[in-house]
């Protein structure tokens, strides 16, 4: 299995349940979902003209559309060669579930790492059984994708982007449709740190015993 890698960098997880945890982020290139507020638009297309050698990806973080193709073996070798301190791997995008992530997450877990993926929920999730799956549901976006029922069922955490009351109503409908035995952690994430969205999220988190995902990295101005 080979993956189109946009960047690999070490930082603190800024979102969801693992906020504050040191993590290595592996960003994969490619996403057809088309969210209007997307802050990683440079990952949308996987064009041949943007393919670069691995040396141009390693240690370089930034909003560039470039990518290199790496195998599971190459990624495991790089991630475990001693340069990183974290043992928590976050596979994000783009949309990482365009790819079969089971070989990579299983291989990293064999090395003693914990894996997490962040997905829009529009595609089937293929990971190791113990990988933490964060679904940030993206409905009604320009790409025209529906939420994938199996992805929602696999979610350990639902991190819901919120700007308006309608988003809260949509989230409640989504939760009501989940099987009763499935109760993922719910975190509200204010869209674009807008003050009104943040105030609404705080109010609703307290009312419903949900968590707030404030995107800590944006307040701290770190990657
Ligand atoms: S799913 Fe994520 S990467 Fe894709 S458009 Fe939406 S926010 Fe951007």
From TrEMBL:
Ligand binding (substrate): 12-14, 27, 92
Record text on cofactor binding: Binds 1 S-adenosyl-L-methionine per subunit. Binds 1 [4Fe-4S] cluster. The cluster is coordinated with 3 cysteines and an exchangeable S-adenosyl-L-methionine.
Enzyme Commission code(s) on record: 4.3.99.3
UniProt binding sites for [4Fe-4S] cluster: 31, 35, 38
Top-level taxonomic group: Bacteria
SUPFAM superfamilies in the record: Radical SAM enzymes
InterPro entries per record: 7-CO-7-deazaguanine_synth-like, Aldolase_TIM, rSAM, rSAM_QueE_proteobac, rSAM_sf
Cofactor(s), names only, from the UniProt record: S-adenosyl-L-methionine; Mg(2+); [4Fe-4S] cluster
Residues annotated as binding Mg(2+): 40
Domain Radical SAM core: 18-223
Keywords: 4Fe-4S, Iron, Iron-sulfur, Lyase, Magnesium, Metal-binding, Queuosine biosynthesis, S-adenosyl-L-methionine
Enzymatic reactions: 6-carboxy-5,6,7,8-tetrahydropterin + H(+) = 7-carboxy-7-carbaguanine + NH4(+)
Entry binding sites for S-adenosyl-L-methionine: 37-39, 94, 136-138
UniProt entry tagged with the keyword Lipoprotein: no
Keyword Iron-sulfur recorded: yes
Pathway: Purine metabolism; 7-cyano-7-deazaguanine biosynthesis
HAMAP family in UniProt: QueE (MF_00917)
Subunit structure, interactors included: Homodimer.
Family: Belongs to the radical SAM superfamily. 7-carboxy-7-deazaguanine synthase family.
Function statement: Catalyzes the complex heterocyclic radical-mediated conversion of 6-carboxy-5,6,7,8-tetrahydropterin (CPH4) to 7-carboxy-7-deazaguanine (CDG), a step common to the biosynthetic pathways of all 7-deazapurine-containing compounds.
The protein's name in its UniProt record: 7-carboxy-7-deazaguanine synthase
Organism of derivation: Ferrimonas gelatinilytica
């Amino acid at each position: 299995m080979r993956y189109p890698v946009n960047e690999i960098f070490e930082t603190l997880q800024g979102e969801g349940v693992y906020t504050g945890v040191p993590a290595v982020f592996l960003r994969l290139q490619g996403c057809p979902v088309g969210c209007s507020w997307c802050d990683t638009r440079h990952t949308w297309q996987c064009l041949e003209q943007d393919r670069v050698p691995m040396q141009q990806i390693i240690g370089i973080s930034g909003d560039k559309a470039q990518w290199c193709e790496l195998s599971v073996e190459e990624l495991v070798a790089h991630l475990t060669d001693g340069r990183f301190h974290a043992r928590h791997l976050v596979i994000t995008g783009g949309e990482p579930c365009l790819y079969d992530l089971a070989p990579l997450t299983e291989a990293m877990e064999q090395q003693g790492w914990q894996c997490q993926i962040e997905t829009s929920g529009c595609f089937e999730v293929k990971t190791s059984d113990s990988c933490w799956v964060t679904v940030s549901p993206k409905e009604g976006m320009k790409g025209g994708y529906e939420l994938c029922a199996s992805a929602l069922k696999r979610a350990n955490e639902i991190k819901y982007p919120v700007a308006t009351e309608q988003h809260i109503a949509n989230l409640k409908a989504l939760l009501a449709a989940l099987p009763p035995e499935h109760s993922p952690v719910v975190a509200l994430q204010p869209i674009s740190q807008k003050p009104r969205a943040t105030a609404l999220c705080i109010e609703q988190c307290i009312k419903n015993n949900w968590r707030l995902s404030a995107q800590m990295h944006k307040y701290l101005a770190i990657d």
